[in-house]
């Protein structure tokens, strides 16, 4: 896959700032400055993307917030593991399902991606034991109808 050299002006500034802070940002206790910076940055993203206010850290009625990850691969891994955990929880709770062990339930999960996806998507699906279907794109876009048809096919097959 293609990995950029990360030598743009904004990237250099970001790297200089991270080097200047020079700390481990695991938790607020280990590094309050990094945690506060992450909160401010993710709230800025909420505003820039015109997301609902419930996505903000400080919204009283929401479960807002977010985490800035180190790489696309790490972000993809966390997203797929979270989706898998949620799907398994739903399958276990659905009384109409023949609930077996997690390995059996996990074998029923399918992830969908486009044929234009980053190489980490396939690697992450292999590591998380989620079957992945690569769907064709139309002018480099995955169309909703293509995804809907694939989901319907998989549901029909159980």
Automatic annotation (TrEMBL):
E.C. no: 4.1.1.22
Any one Gene Ontology BP term: catecholamine biosynthetic process
Keywords carried by this UniProt record: Catecholamine biosynthesis, Decarboxylase, Lyase, Pyridoxal phosphate
A Pfam family of this chain: Pyridoxal_deC
Name of the protein: Histidine decarboxylase
GO molecular function per UniProt: histidine decarboxylase activity; pyridoxal phosphate binding
The keyword Lyase is annotated on this UniProt entry: yes
Family: Belongs to the group II decarboxylase family.
Source taxon at top rank: Eukaryota
One GO cellular component term noted in the UniProt record for this chain: cytoplasm
SUPFAM superfamilies associated with the record: PLP-dependent transferases
Quaternary structure note: Homodimer.
Organism, as annotated: Petromyzon marinus
Keyword DNA-binding part of the UniProt annotation: no
Coiled-coil features, chain-numbered ranges: none
Cofactors that this protein relies on: pyridoxal 5'-phosphate
